[in-house]
Amino acid sequence: MTAILFANSPAAAREWRVDMVNRGANGSMDFTPAFLKIAPGDTVRFVAKDKTHNVESIRNMMPAGASPFQGAINQDVTVKFSRAGLYGYKCLPHTAMGMVGLIQVGSAVNRPAIVANLGSLPPLARARMTKFLQLAK
Ligand SMILES: [Cu+2]
Question: Cα(119) to centroid of ligand 1, in Å?
């Protein structure tokens, strides 16, 4: 009986984890994983695993109408992503060192806007964001 009820329910929202680290798969000053694909309604917990990092949304790299988010240095932040699209985010002190990430929530409806705003990122951050955009399908 329980199994039947479960099968008829919408997928349960999941919680994902992204670590802020001094070194990751993309090099120095990184988010792990820096690209994540999730479903609308899921949450992501950004964990300050190493110190001196923060996480905050990039103003011009979010779906229209989505709420910006911003954590303090060394602060763990949990964000619920309800609206479909791509969300670029960064660590403020290390943006110039390329510390950015990308979350795809459902379909990448705002991809053209993100691509159009790549030029607003410093070179290392732009290079990593370009790589992450190739993963967003
Ligand atoms: Cu950082």
Answer: 20
